[in-house]
Amino acid sequence: MVAIAADPVKPATFYFGACAGGVWKSEDAGQYWENISDGQFASSSVGALRVAPSDGNIIYAGMGEATIRLDVTHGDGVYKSTDAGMNWRHIGLADTRHIGEVVVHPNDPDTVYVAALGHMSKDNAERGLFRSTDGGATWDNVLYVGDDAGAVDVAIDSNNPRVLLASTWQTRRTFWSIDSGGPGSGLWRSLDGGDTWQNISTNPGLPDGTLGKIGVTISSAQSGRAWAIIEAEGRKRGLYRTDDMGETWEKVSSKPELGWRPWYYMHVEAHPTDADTVFILNMQAWKSIDGGKNFDEFPTPHGDNHALWIDPTNPDRMIGADDGGAWVSQNAGNSWSTIYNQLTAQFYHIDVDDQFPYNVYGSQQDNSSIAVPSRTGVGAINWADCWPPGTAESGYVAVKPDDPNIVYVGAIGSSPGGGDSLQRYDHVSKQIQLVSVWPEAYHDGNTAEVRFQWTYPIMFSPQDPNTLYACGNKVFRSTDEGLSWDAISPDLTYADPDTMGVSGPLTMETAGAEMYATIFSFMPSAHRPGVLMAGSDDGLVHVSMDDGATWQDVTPSGLPKFSQVTSVTESPHTEGTVYMTVARHKMGDYAPYVFKTTDFGQSWTAITDGLPGDDFCRIIREDPNRQGLLYVGTELGVFVSFDDGANWQSLQADLPVSPVYDLVVKDTDLVVATHGRSIWILDDLTQLHQICDDMNGADRYLFAPRDAVRNPGHLFAEFWGSEGGKNYHVTIGQNATFYLDVAETGHKRKRVIDAGEDLERGVRVTYHLADDATGEATLTFLDANGTEIRTFSSDIPEKKEDRDGLYITAKAGMNEFQWPMTWPDGPKMVDTKFHGRPGGPLALPGTYSVRLDVGDWSQTQSFNLVKDPRIDTSDEAFVAQFGLLRDIQDKLSSSVEAVNEIRGLRKQLDAWSERLGDDAADVVELATSVKEQLDTVEGELVQAELTSPGDSLNYREMLFEKLSGLTPVVASADRPPTRQSFQVFEKLSGQIDEQLAALAAVRDTDLAELNRQLRDLGVDIVGI
Question: What is the rounded distance in angstroms from the CA atom of residue 629 to the CA atom of residue 641?
C-alpha cells in the first residue's frame, strides 16, 4: 500500500488507496475501514491519494502504483471526489498507467500536480508531471523528459507554493528484470508554480553519473530546506539535503538501509514543525532528529514501508502505509491502529479440500499463507476460524488429496530453503518441514542452473496422492512427500541469454520475484495418467505423453517469444482438451490471449471474442458440472463463456474490480482469488448451468435451486443486531463488525466490514421475469408428496408495521428469495409485540419443490435438502426430532389461540359491562366473574407483563414462555431429542391442557349463562 491521506480538519477521518483494491475510508482513526470506490473506478490500483488541504471534501486519486513489483497492476488516470469520497468521477490522464504522487496547492483545491510514471514496460507519451488549475477539467504536461521516463515524485513548498521539487525516473519492468536508472532520471525545480522547470541534478553536492529513482520532500518548518533520497552509482546512493532549495546539496547519510531496493522504496517525508526531523520509508522505517545525519528505526506494524503523512497542525496525528496495510497514530507513532481490519489481501494461487465445509487455501503477498473455511454457520468468517498452513506469501498451495492436514506451499520470499523454499505443513503437529527441490541460494540470478520463479507450480497427481510435482526450469517429481526429488524433464524454456542476467544498471535485483526462464504453469492430466503439460514464462508449451520420459514442443504457432503462459488447465469433461491463457503485459502488450486445444496441444485455436482488447488474462477453468462453460480471470475481473469460448461476457456482478489470479470450481461454487480484494465465492453456479441449458429465451423462468445442506442454526447466530449503525458481535465468541441491512422482503443480511461474510443458511431461489409482474406473484414450497408447506407473496404492505414475515419480489430481471427451510410459524398472539409466533420446525432432509405463480403462468422446480455430511444421524432420529418440534409448536399454537380468545372475550365483556351499567347489575356481576376466570387462565398461559427480555428479571415466565424455551433445546443439533425433553414437554403440555380445559369450562358454564342472560335482555351475545 502506497497511497494515504487524511482530512485536514476532522481528526479521526483518514483514507488509504490499496495497491489493487480501491479507496478506503475510516472515520474512527483506523478502527474500521470501508471501501468508498467500488462500482465507480474502472481500475483498482491506487498509486497516490491526496485530500485538498483547504477543503476536506475534495480528494484526488492517482491510479496505478509506481512501486512496480512483479505483481503490480495498472491504473487509468485520475479520479476526483468533491463530497469526501461518496461519489467519484474520472478526470483524465487515462494513459498515465502508473502515478507516483499527487499534491494539491495548500490554498487552492483546484490546483493539483500529478507525477505520472507512464507505462512500465514500453514507451508512451502521456507521462511526466501534469498540472491542472481547474480541478482536473484540463491538464498541462509541465515537465516532460521523454517517452521512456516519467515523473515519480513531487513536493510543494507549503510556505511558498510557487516552489516545487520533482523527480523523474527512467525505468523498465520486463518479465525478467527491473531496470532502474538512465538519462531520463533526474531532480527538477520550479520557482513559478510549474510553469518552467530547471534540471538541478548536477547542482553542487549531488552525485554525478547515472541516477535512478529519487524521492523528495520539502520542509515546511524551515524555508529552503529539502531532502532527496537518491539511487546513484555505488556508494553515492544516500540521503541528500539542501538548505537553499536546491542550489547546493550535502550528503547527510550513506546508511545502506535507507536506499535498499530503490525501485521499490525511496520515500522520504519531512516533519511539518521540526526542521531537523525527517523520515525515510524503506523495508524498515527510519527517523532522524538531527537533519538526516543519524537514523533510528521507527517501528511500524508490518514492514516494507511506503508512505507517511503527518498532520501539519497536529504532528502527533499520522497515517502510514506498508505492505501490510494502513495504520493510524494519534501519539506520534508510539502506537498504531491494526492492519488486520482491511480486506485487501493479495492472493496468488488457491486450492480447496474435500471437507465440509470445505476450506480454501491460498498464498497472500507479504503475509502468510492461509486456510479459510468457506462457511462457519455463525454469521462471519474471521481470523479465529482460519490458520496459516506454512509461511508462504508466494506461489502455489497444494493440499494432499487423501489428507487435508498435509499442505505444500511455495514460500519464496518468506522462508529459508534456498531457490524454491518449498514447505510441507502438518496441521496436526503444526510443524513445517522444508522439502526444497534444490535448497541453494538463488543469488546467481537467472544464470542459476536450477531456477524457480516466485509463483512456481506445485501440484499433486490426480491419480496418486503420493506423487507431487514442482516446477522450476524443469519438472521435478517426488513420491515420498518431498524427501527426494527427480527431474523428469530437460529445461523447458527458451533460456534466452538476453534474459539470463540480473537487473540494473544501478541495483542488482536477484530476488525470486525476478527469476526467469521457468515453468510458470503446469497440468497433470486427470483423464490419462502420465500426460503432463508445461507452459513457461518465456513463451514455450511442452507436453509429455509418457510421464516425463520425453517431451514435445507444442507451442501455438505464432505465439511470440517472451510471452508468459499464465495457465494451462485441462477440461474435466474431454480427454485431450486443454485451455491456456497467456499474458504479454510486461512486453507492453495488454491484449487477452486465450487458446484451446482438443489434441493435447498438437493444434490450438484462439478463443477471445468478447474479451476486452486491453485486459490480459491470468487463469481459465472449465466448469466440471457443465461442458463448455468457461471462466476466465483477467487483470480487472471475471468473464464467462457459455459456448466453449466462442463468446465471452462479464461475470463481474458485485465482485470488486481487482486482478484475478486464480479460479477454482468447487462443487457448484466458483472460488475466486483476487490480488487485492481477498477471496470471493460465487456460491451457486447452478443458475449459470441453467441459463445456457434450459431458459431458451423464456420471458419467465424459475431456476432449479441447488441442493442445500439442511443444518440447524448456531444457537446465537440468529442475533441480528440493529439497523442504523455498527454491530460488533455476530454471535458469542465471534467478534465481527457488521451493518444490518433489512430488505423490503423482510430478509436480513449482515454486511460484515472486518471479516469474511458467511454463507447464508437456507435455499436460494432465483427467477427471471422479463417484465414486472401484474398483480400478485407467489412462491410456494412443497414436500415430496406435493403438500404445500408455505407460500410467500409479492404483495408487500407499504407500511413496515403492517408487514409480517417474508415476502418475494416480482420485478423485471433477476429476483432472489432465501427460504429458511422451515415450516410455517404458528398464529400471532394479539396485543403484544414481544411474544413471537410459535416457530415452525426445520424441514426434514429429503426432496422438495418450489412453484412460482405469476398470473396464470406457473413453473415448478425440485431440489433436495441433504443432511450435514459431518453427521451420521439416522432418518428415524430426524423424524423423532421433527415430530417433537411439531408437537411443541401445536401446543404453543393452541396456547396462542386460547390467549387470543380470552383477550377478545375480555374486550367484549368490558364493552358490555360499560354499556349495561347499573341497569343490569346481575349481568355485569356475572360478566366480571367470567372476566376474572379468564384472567386466571391467561395468567397461567402467558406472562402479559413481558415487553422486553429484561422484564423476565421481575416477572415470572409462564407456560407459553417455558414451552417456547424447549424449542431451541430440541432443535439445537442434528440429534434425536433427549429423554428429558420429552418429559418436560409432557409436563408443560399437561399443564397447558389443564388451562385449556379450564377455559372450555368457563366457556361452557358461566359464559354460556351470561349469553343466556344477554339474550333475555334482547342484546347480542358475547361471541367467541
Answer: 6
User: Crossing angle for the helix pair 921-941 and 979-1004, nearest 10 degrees?
Assistant: 170
pLDDT of 918 strictly over 80 = no
Q: Which long-range contacts (CB under 8 A, 24 or more apart) does 938-946 make?
A: 938/898, 938/899, 938/902, 938/903, 940/991, 940/995, 941/895, 941/898, 941/899, 941/992, 941/995, 942/829, 942/835, 942/895, 942/899, 944/832, 946/834, 946/835
Q: What is the pLDDT of residue 501?
A: 82
Report the 3 state secondary structure along 251-280: EEECCHHHHCCHHHCCEEEECCCCCCCEEE
Q: How many Cβ atoms from other residues are within 10 Å of residue 274's Cβ?
A: 14
Instruction: Confirm if 705 and 764 have CB atoms less than 8 A apart.
Output: yes
Q: What letter does residue 919 receive in the DSSP assignment?
A: G
Report pLDDT for 724.
86
Q: Where are the alpha helices (DSSP H) in 561-665?
A: none
- Tell me what the mean pLDDT of segment 407-424 comes to: 93
Listed in sequence order, the residues at least 6 apart from 856 whose beta carbon sits closer than 8 Å to its beta carbon are none
489-523: b (≥16 Cβ within 10 Å) or e = bebbbbbeeebbebbeebbebbbbbbbbbbbbbbb
Distances (CA, A) of 90 to 41, 484, 961: 8, 55, 59
- Sign, Cα dihedral of 226, 231, 233, 239: positive
- Helix (H) or strand (E) holding 901, with range, is helix 875-916
Residue of 227, 34, 64, 105 whose CA lies nearest to 636: 64
1024 has a pLDDT exceeding 70: no
pLDDT digits (tens, 9 = 90+) for 452-490: 999 999 999 999 999 999 999 999 999 999 999 999 999
Exposure string over 275-307, b if 16+ CB within 10 A, otherwise e: bbbbbbbbebbbbbeebbeebeebebbbebbbb
- For residue 719, is pLDDT > 70? no
Radius of gyration over alpha carbons of the chain, in Å?
A: 35
Which range is most confident: 258-262, 497-501, 722-726?
258-262
pLDDT of amino acid 443? 59
Interval 154-163: pLDDT, tens: 999 999 999 9
The cell numbers describing 747, all together, are: 430478509
Extract the runs of DSSP E, i.e. beta strands, from 951-1007: none
Q: Which amino acid is at 784?
A: A
For the chain, the distance separating the N- and C-terminal CA atoms, rounded to the nearest angstrom, is: 71
Alpha carbons 734 and 138: distance in angstroms, whole number: 50
pLDDT, residue 511, reads 64
Residue 697, pLDDT score? 79
pLDDT digits (tens, 9 = 90+) for 234-264: 999 999 999 999 999 999 999 999 999 999 9
Q: Are 76 and 30 in contact (CB under 8 A)?
A: no
